Amino acid sequence: MKVFVIGGGPAGIMAAIYAAKGGAEVTLLERNDKIGKKLFITGKGRCNITNLSDHDNYLKNIVSNPKFALRALKTMSPQGLIQFFNDSGLPIKIERGNRVFPLSDKSSDVIKVLNKLLENSGVKVFYNQKVVDFTVENNKINQIITEKQVFYPDKAILAIGGKSYASTGSDGIGYALARKCGHSIIPLKPALVPLICDKCYDAFCQAASISELPPLQGLSLRNITASIIDENDKKLFEEFGELMFTHNGMSGPVILTLSSKINRMDCSKLKIKLDLKPALDYKMLDNRLLRDFGEKKE
User: Fold this and answer.
1) Is residue 81 part of a domain?
2) Predicted local distance difference test score (pLDDT) of residue 203
């Protein structure tokens, strides 16, 4: 059986390896001149491979339709993925928050291992093959059309990515191809993105009773709580962790997580509330400030 995998990212690579292990004749079509282009930049170039959490914790952190991921997690758990890379010769380390990285802190080492696994599995990789169309008959893809040639699969696996990073190949064409195969596509919304907050600094000045704030761009704060408040002052979501101010709003892990929870809501009716010292109540904070001022005086 001739199986064609479209897309040389993590999903496509793993699909190709395991299809070849199952006995198929596998061809991987990649639009770039190398595989794993987005994988190369993930984790700031260190490649955050997975998180060593149990199923319940994973599902709790999936914003919508967590059951969709359950089968994948049962097929290969985080522990299984770590074992997969260890068996493939890639040393792994576990950092704070159960985050898993290659021991070398180099995403290129992860890609080298995956390249070797593709080669050892007998997968043929065709580079610079941007898929532009399918022909579909009787719910079956019988032609894959690239900018260079036409391929004739017995089976096809679409792992072409979303629309998150066009320069790596994720430019949204996968949605059009999936729609052609009969899939319905939910309207796209940005997620895991910074928040633009035009009036944030004005609100900060008002809260602090000052006329102007010093430049905040690039300022990072740790161990803060950020909450999303609705028009009735009801708390909808809350995250604890690190926040960073940008030139026009806020970013950082807590903001990115919150953005994915409100991206389908009317944001004009929402407010964001920051607690810079969530471990302290007002009395404790007042005492802490008085103590600090006293130390500065001395």
Assistant:
1) yes
2) 67
Identify whether residues 7 and 107 lie together within a single domain.
yes
In the sheet with 249-251, reading across from the earlier edge strand, the strands are: 195-196, 249-251, 235-245, 220-229, 271-275
134 and 269 assigned to the same domain: no
d(CA 233, CA 231): 5
- What pLDDT does residue 94 have? 94
Q: pLDDT confidence of 49, banded at 50, 70, 90?
A: very high
Task: Answer yes or no: do 6 and 73 share one domain.
Answer: yes
Whether residue 271 contacts residue 202, with contact meaning beta carbons closer than 8 Å, is answered with: no
Residue 41 forms part of a structural domain: yes
- Residue 37: inside a domain: yes
Domain shared by 156 and 63, yes or no: yes
Using DSSP bridges, classify how beta strands 99-102 and 50-51 pair: parallel, antiparallel or unpaired: antiparallel
Q: Is the pLDDT of residue 58 over 70?
A: yes
Q: Are 115 and 8 in contact (CB under 8 A)?
A: no
Domain count across the chain:
2
pLDDT confidence of 298, banded at 50, 70, 90? low
CA distances, 217 to each of 138, 173, 213 (Å): 55, 35, 11
Give all strands of the β-sheet with 92-95 in edge-to-edge order.
50-51, 99-102, 92-95
Which domain range does residue 23 map to?
A: 2-180
Q: Is 27 exposed, middle or buried (0-12, 13-18, 19+ CB in 10 A)?
A: buried
In a shared domain, residues 213 and 175: no
Q: Are 250 and 197 in contact (CB under 8 A)?
A: yes
- Evaluate whether 194 touches 255 at the Cβ level (below 8 Å): yes
Residue of 82, 84, 77 lying closest to 57 (CA atoms):
77
Q: Are residues 73 and 150 in the same domain?
A: yes
d(CA 274, CA 277): 9
- Domain assignment present for residue 186? The answer is no
Phi, psi at residue 185, to the nearest 5°?
Answer: -115, 125
Q: Would the pTM count as exceeding 0.85?
A: no
